[in-house]
Task: inverse folding
């Protein structure tokens, strides 16, 4: 049996393989069956934190979420970093309480996350849209982080060489907000790893089941 495609981070369901769909409006009714939700750092400065955190906790409690995220730190926006970190940590605690993996949004903040990873061993964290260098990748992987690669992989030659050297059991692929097929990213990524698309599908599907157990089977 050929393993299905896994799109570990998208904002729109397409029906192509297993998709972890990020619910952007999680306070309204969630619809995706394999879903993540969280208070994005871009929204930290413009919403009622307690209301958002309570909504996330409720979704976790009712079994409607399979991951918390995307959450994280973005040093390219104006929102106070200590506020971002506080909101992030409260959401990390929710994920820990419910035993869920976390989807990380990280912009110019990899060193902040080394600290977080050190303090939270055993919490599965997937860095979505990873675009760091080889040293950063190595440091994150030393703390058992997983790295998800998206559209930048197609055009960024430095990132391509980072991806080629990242151990296969630590990788995921994603489309995020891009109008791009997950199959296109797989085809390109398999070329970089010099393996077949089917081999890559098997590797990433295995990575999925190791982190999510059989949660993905709620799909469809
Ligand atoms: Zn996203």
Result:
């Amino acid at each position: 049996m050929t393993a299905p495609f896994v799109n570990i981070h998208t904002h729109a369901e397409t029906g192509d393989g297993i998709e972890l769909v990020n619910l952007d409006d999680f306070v309204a009714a969630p619809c995706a069956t394999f879903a993540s939700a969280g208070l994005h750092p871009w929204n930290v400065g413009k919403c009622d934190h307690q209301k958002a955190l309570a909504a996330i906790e409720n979704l976790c409690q009712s079994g409607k979420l399979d991951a918390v995220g995307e959450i994280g730190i973005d040093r390219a926006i104006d929102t106070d970093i200590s506020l971002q970190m506080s909101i992030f940590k409260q959401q990390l605690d929710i994920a820990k309480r419910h035993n869920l993996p976390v989807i990380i949004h990280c912009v110019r903040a990899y060193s902040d996350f080394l600290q977080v990873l050190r303090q939270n061993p055993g919490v599965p964290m997937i860095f979505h849209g990873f675009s760091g260098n080889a040293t950063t990748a190595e440091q994150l992987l030393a703390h058992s982080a997983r790295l998800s690669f998206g559209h930048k992989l197609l055009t960024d030659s430095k990132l391509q060489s980072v991806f080629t050297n990242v151990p296969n059991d630590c990788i995921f692929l994603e489309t995020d907000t891009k109008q791009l097929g997950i199959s296109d990213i797989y085809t390109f990524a398999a070329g970089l790893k010099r393996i077949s698309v089917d081999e890559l599908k098997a590797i990433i599907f295995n990575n999925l089941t190791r982190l999510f157990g059989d949660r993905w089977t709620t799909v469809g």
About this structure: The radius of gyration is 16 Å. The pocket of zinc ion is lined by residues 9, 11, 22, 70, 176-177 (CB under 6 Å). The chain has one domain: 6-214.
